[in-house]
């Protein structure tokens, strides 16, 4: 094959998707309201307590702080001021950080797919590939959202964190290839979700600096907000005595030193606790607090507050499959910029990078390092010192073109297939057990196959011809991917002849997992937890399907949207 491309596939994919992944805005905002949780009093009182300073929690806190006292509890640290987060040149070191204070926390689903969850102020917007695209108008309508407020909320987000990306040669070739493959019309640059091919937004500015959901805290009323970092919430407290149903009234959290603190809601009928801990964290915290399947909770010696068997159900992760295309000529470093929105239910995206090998002087190899990453060249269970040393020695012998090329990927919309989440332990720092059941529904598999067939058309299109080697057939390109350790699933020999087997064998995450506290099942359409009072969940765990091509725009919008709805509701009730 030359250059050992297939051995580098896994590391290269993460490199390209996440090259700027932990880059924060270079200048940290002067957030006077942000503190380490070790400075918190033993007991405190607020109008609102938000658990999780992520993609939804930050805009929600900023909005509610305009009129009320808000406590935002984030289990991770700040995205600002840490060179391993801020500096692109140090990106490999950030991803290799497996310490308890790392901005990401790795987990492996029961399906055998390696994944990650955020552990930093700003949440997944500090870790993702930066693509910014709104949900379809039908999605908002089916969610029962007010269209005018949805648009206003998107615009509120976009004023601070969304930009138009500069499109260079490789992305232009993918764009033209999509159109030639029949993903039409070409809709130009837009944030909107429209059938056809488009250039979407990005949360990277023109200087390559990432703007995360944490930046939305610039909108906050500094006298109304307290943000505590390294504050891990262990449980929500409920009052049951003399109540017709349990009333959430406080939380217990621990700081980095392990000291326990309690925060309570001030007295008042409309004060609330809001959980925004993400698709893993929110159902996990409800269960740890006694809201979940009674039998499962009792098995972990958790006192049942409400028997709610649907907590942790409906877990989904949009399956992603990619084809690596080595390039005979240099390609630009690009994250997700162009997307093809098909009528058959697959989204086609692409990312490229000329050289993610890092500095040869340090021999760290950046994103190609076998020591790091979700998809490094050495499978996680085989990362012994001897195996790592052998991999580094092999990489030292490679020529520069081995690192050159790009990925064209397809993501299945929805998806229809669902799984479930369960507790492993009662420690909120531990990952729960999660099963996504990729491709359990045959329609998801069919969408993957059609997506790959479209990618093949792009690769064979005239606009893309200069970025591929003539002698590498489509079957060879499929085998480059299939032969790499991208997940822990068993491999089959016939993948280049069977696209359905290729889908199953090479399934990866694109980090768009959701569910576990779904609307109509665990929360109502106002995001209030069913069966209890003064408790809401507002984040991606409430989604039935992932919104748009990439969810972050809609998750940020939802935080602002629901903040405004809650303020308007209180204004109306206070006026009566």
From TrEMBL:
InterPro entries: FAD/NAD-bd_sf (IPR036188), GMC_Oxidoreductase-Related (IPR051871), GMC_OxRdtase (IPR012132), GMC_OxRdtase_N (IPR000172), GMC_OxRtase_C (IPR007867). Belongs to the GMC oxidoreductase family. GO terms for molecular function: flavin adenine dinucleotide binding; oxidoreductase activity, acting on CH-OH group of donors. Keywords: Disulfide bond, FAD, Flavoprotein, Signal. Pfam families: GMC_oxred_C (PF05199), GMC_oxred_N (PF00732). Gene3D superfamilies: 3.30.410.40, FAD/NAD(P)-binding domain. FAD binds at residues 120, 233, 511-512, 540, 551-552. Residues 278-292 form the Glucose-methanol-choline oxidoreductase N-terminal domain. This is Glucose-methanol-choline oxidoreductase N-terminal domain-containing protein. Its cofactor is FAD. Disulfide bonds join 448-503. It comes from the Eukaryota. PANTHER family: OS04G0573100 PROTEIN, OSJNBA0019K04.7 PROTEIN. PROSITE patterns: GMC_OXRED_2 (PS00624). Transmembrane segments: none annotated.
């Amino acid at each position: 094959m030359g250059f050992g491309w297939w051995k580098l596939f896994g590391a290269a994919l993460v490199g390209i998707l996440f090259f700027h992944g932990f880059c924060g805005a270079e200048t940290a905002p002067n957030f006077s309201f942000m503190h380490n949780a070790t400075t918190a009093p033993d007991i405190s009182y607020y109008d609102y307590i938000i658990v999780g300073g992520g993609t939804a929690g930050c805009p929600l806190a900023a909005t509610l702080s305009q009129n009320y006292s808000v406590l935002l509890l984030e289990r991770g640290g700040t995205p600002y001021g840490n060179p391993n987060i801020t500096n692109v040149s140090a990106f490999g070191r950030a991803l290799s950080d497996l310490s308890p204070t790392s901005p990401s926390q790795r987990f492996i689903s029961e399906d055998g797919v390696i994944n990650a969850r955020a552990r930093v102020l700003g949440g997944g917007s500090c870790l993702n590939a930066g693509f910014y695209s709104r949900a379809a108008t039908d999605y908002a309508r089916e969610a029962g959202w007010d269209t005018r407020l949805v648009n206003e909320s998107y615009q509120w987000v976009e004023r601070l964190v969304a930009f138009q990306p500069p499109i260079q040669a490789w992305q232009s070739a993918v764009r033209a290839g999509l159109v030639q493959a029949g993903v039409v019309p070409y809709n130009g640059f837009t944030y909107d979700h429209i059938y056809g091919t488009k250039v979407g937004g990005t949360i990277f500015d023109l200087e390559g600096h990432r703007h995360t959901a944490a930046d939305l805290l610039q909108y906050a009323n500094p006298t109304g907000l307290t943000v505590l970092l390294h504050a891990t919430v262990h449980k929500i407290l409920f009052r049951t005595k003399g109540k017709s149903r349990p009333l959430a009234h406080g939380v217990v959290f621990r700081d980095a030193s392990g000291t326990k603190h309690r925060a309570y809601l001030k007295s008042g009928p409309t004060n609330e606790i809001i959980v925004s801990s993400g698709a893993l964290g929110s159902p996990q915290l409800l269960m740890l607090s006694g809201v979940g399947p009674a039998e499962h909770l009792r098995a972990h010696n958790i006192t049942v507050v409400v028997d709610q068997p649907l907590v942790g159900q409906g877990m989904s992760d949009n399956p992603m499959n990619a084809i690596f295309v080595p390039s005979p000529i240099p390609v630009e470093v690009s994250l997700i910029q162009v997307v093809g929105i098909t009528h058959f239910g697959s989204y086609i995206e692409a990312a490229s990078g000329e050289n993610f090998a890092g500095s040869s002087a340090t021999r760290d190899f950046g994103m190609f390092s076998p020591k790091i990453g979700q998809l490094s060249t050495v499978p996680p269970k085989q990362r012994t010192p001897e195996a790592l040393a052998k991999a580094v020695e092999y990489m030292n012998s490679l020529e520069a073109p081995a690192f050159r090329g790009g990925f064209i990927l397809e993501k299945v919309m929805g998806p229809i297939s669902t799984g479930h989440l369960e507790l492993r332990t009662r420690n909120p720092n531990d990952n729960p057990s999660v099963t996504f059941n990729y491709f359990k529904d045959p329609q998801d598999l069919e969408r993957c196959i059609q997506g790959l067939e479209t990618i093949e058309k792009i690769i064979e299109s005239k606009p893309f011809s200069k970025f591929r080697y003539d002698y590498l057939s489509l079957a060879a390109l499929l085998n480059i991917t299939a032969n790499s350790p991208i997940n822990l699933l068993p491999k089959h020999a016939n993948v280049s002849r069977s696209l359905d087997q290729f889908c199953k064998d090479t399934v990866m995450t694109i980090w768009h997992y959701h569910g576990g506290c779904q609307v109509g099942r665990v929360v109502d359409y106002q995001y209030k937890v069913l069966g209890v009072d003064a408790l809401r969940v507002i984040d991606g765990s409430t989604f039935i399907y992932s919104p748009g091509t990439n969810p972050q725009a809609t998750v940020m919008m939802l935080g602002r949207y629901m903040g405004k709805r809650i303020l308007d509701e209180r204004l109306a009730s206070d006026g009566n």
